[in-house]
Amino acid sequence: MNLSIKHLLGLEGVPRDDINAILDTAFSFREVLERPIKKVPTLRSITVLNLFFENSTRTRISFELAEKRLSADMVNFSASGSSLAKGETLRDTVQNIYAMKVDVVVMRHPVPGSVKLLSQFVDAVVINAGDGTHEHPTQALLDMMSIKEKCGSLEDLNVAIIGDIRHSRVALSNIYGLRTMGANVLLCGPPTFIPYGVESLGVKVTYDLDEALDFADVINVLRIQKERQGKGLIPSLREYRNVYGVTQQRLSKLKKTITIMHPGPINRGVEIDSDVADSEHSIILHQVLNGVAVRMSILFLLAGGK
Amino acid sequence: MVVKTKSIIMDELALRRTITRLAHEILERCKGTESIGIVGIRTRGEFVAKRIAQKIEEVENVQIPVGVLDTVMYRDDFRIKSRLPKIEITDIPFDVDDKILILVDDVIYTGRTIRAAMDALMDFGRPSAIQLAVLIDRGHRELPIKADYIGKSVPTAHYEEVQVMMQEIDGKDEILLVEVDQ
Q1: Which residues of A are tagged catalytic?
Q2: Of A119, A165, A295, B117, whose CB count within 10 A is highest?
Q3: For residue B90, which residues of chain A lie inside 8 Å, CB to CB?
Q4: Complex-level ipTM
Q5: Which fold has domain A16-136+288-303?
Q6: Nearest-CA neighbor of B117 among B85, B155, B76, B150?
C-alpha cells in the first residue's frame, strides 16, 4: 500500500497504481466525514505546515480540515504579514520553519516549479496545493474520485475540459491523471486559451463547444481566470458566454445526460449557468467533500508510514 | 517463507458448531435480541459476524443489524512497520447509541486491534455496552482486554500463527495452527 512517490508535486509521471491507491483510500476516509465524531487519531504524531503564498478558499480550508480530521498538528502561514515583506527568500523562510521540525509542507505558490524546488531543500514530504499555471494535483485527484464515484470507472470514459486551459493548473493535472487512468480527454475553448502543442499530451482539441458536449460523458468546466489573463485573449465575457458558456439550452439539445463538474470558484452566467451548476447532474458539491477525503488519503499515504 | 501446519484447530463442522454456540451464548447473556448490534472487524471478523447474525436470525427469527469496522486508522503500529496497511471502508449502517455492541473478530492475540476497534466504535456514538466475541483466543495479551465469548482457547507460542480460513474469502472453512519460517 506504499506509494512509489515521496512527494506529490504533480500528476505528471505518477503511476496508475499510486492513483488507484490514493482514490481507494480516499473512499475509506470519506466515511469518517459522515460520522458523528469526524476525527480519527491516525496522524497524531505528524506536524503539517500550510504555506500559502497565493489566495485560496476551498483548497486551504480543505487541507486544514483534512489535517484536523486526521489529528495532525498544523501551522498556517500566509504571505501577507510575514517576513517575506522584509525581503526573505522562499528558501530561507521555509528552512527556518522546517528547522522547527515539521513533517509535511503543503504549499501554494504563484511560480510554476516552486514546489519542486522546495522539495529539494527540505527533508519533509511536500504536497503541491497549486504552483502557478503548472499543476494542482489534489484538485485533479478529487475530480477523478468524483468521476469514479459517479461513473464507476475512468477507463475509456470521455471527459471534456472546457475553458481557459492555458492558464489552468487544474486542466494540466487533470490531463495527466485522466490519461494515466485510461480516460479519453478532449479540450475545448477559444484558440487563445489552448496551449500550442498540447496534443502531445495525448489529448484532442476542439474549438466547438457543441462538438465537445457531443463527445463527453463528463465535462469539467473551468473558471475564466480574470486575474491571470492579459488583455485581448477573448473579446468580452459576454461573447465568451455566447460561444463557450454551458447552458441548459445547449445541454437539452443532446440525447444524453452529461455529468457536470467545476473546480470552483464559479463565475455564474459566464462559463456555466446557474441552472446547470445546480442541476441534478452536477457533482460540484460532491467534489468539495471528496476534496477533504482525497487530501486525508494523500496525507496518510505520504506521511503515515515510517 | 515456509508455512508448516502443526495442527488443525477446527474443521468445517467444528467451526459451524462453534458459531452456533457463540450465537446462543450471546442470546442467553443479552436476554434476547433487543438492542443488539453486531460489528465485525475486517477482514475475517466480518464473515464471522455475519454468520453469527445469520444463526441468531434462524433461532429467533429476528434480523440483527450488522456492521463492518476497519481499525487501521486507530492502530498504533503503522508508524513502526515499513509497509502501510490498506484502509478499507468502515460501514456501520445503524445507530449505535444505547445498543449492546457485539464486537467480533476471528483471533484475539495482543488485544491491540480490539483497543483500536473500541476507540473507533466510541466515535460512532455511545453504545450501552461493548462485548467481545472471538473464534480463537491465542493468549499473549499486551493490554487488559478479555473476550466475553470465546470459540476456543488455544495456547500458542509467539513464533506460531493461527490461520483462519473462511469460505467467503478463502474458499473453505478451516482453522490451522501453523509455524512460519521467515
Answers
A1: 58-59, 86, 108, 136
A2: A295
A3: 28, 31-32
A4: 0.86
A5: Rossmann fold (3.40.50)
A6: B76
- Residue in B83, B84, B88 closest to A28 by CB: B88
Substitution target from B72, B73, B92, B112 for chain A, most A beta carbons within 10 A: B73
The domain A137-283 belongs to what CATH superfamily?
Aspartate/ornithine carbamoyltransferase (3.40.50.1370)
Q: Which three cell numbers stand for residue A290?
A: 471528496
Predicted TM-score (pTM) of the model is 0.92
What is the C-alpha end-to-end distance of chain A, expressed in Å?
13
Measured in whole angstroms, the distance separating CA A196 from the mean position of its chain's CA atoms is 22
Q: What is the mean pLDDT of residues A179-186?
A: 97
Domain-wise residue ranges, chain A: 16-136+288-303, 137-283
Contacts of B105 (CB under 8 A, 6+ apart): B40, B41, B44, B45, B48, B113, B114, B117, B132, B133, B134, B135
**Distance from CA of residue A236 to its chain's centroid?**
27
From the list B78, B87, B125, which residue is nearest A305 (CB)?
Answer: B78
pLDDT at residue B2 greater than cutoff 80: no
Cα B71 to chain centroid, rounded: 12
| pLDDT tens digit sequence for A51-64 | 998 888 889 999 99
Q: Give residue A83's pLDDT.
A: 65
- Domain spanning B12-159 has what CATH number? 3.40.50.2020
* Of A265, A185, A263, nearest in space to A218 by CA: A185
d(CA A78, CA A132): 16
Amino acid at B133: A
Mean predicted confidence (pLDDT) in A122-144: 95
Q: What's residue A100's pLDDT?
A: 82
**Quick one: pLDDT at residue B119?**
95
Strands (DSSP E) contained in chain A are: 47-52, 73-78, 104-109, 125-131, 158-162, 184-188, 204-206, 218-221, 259-261
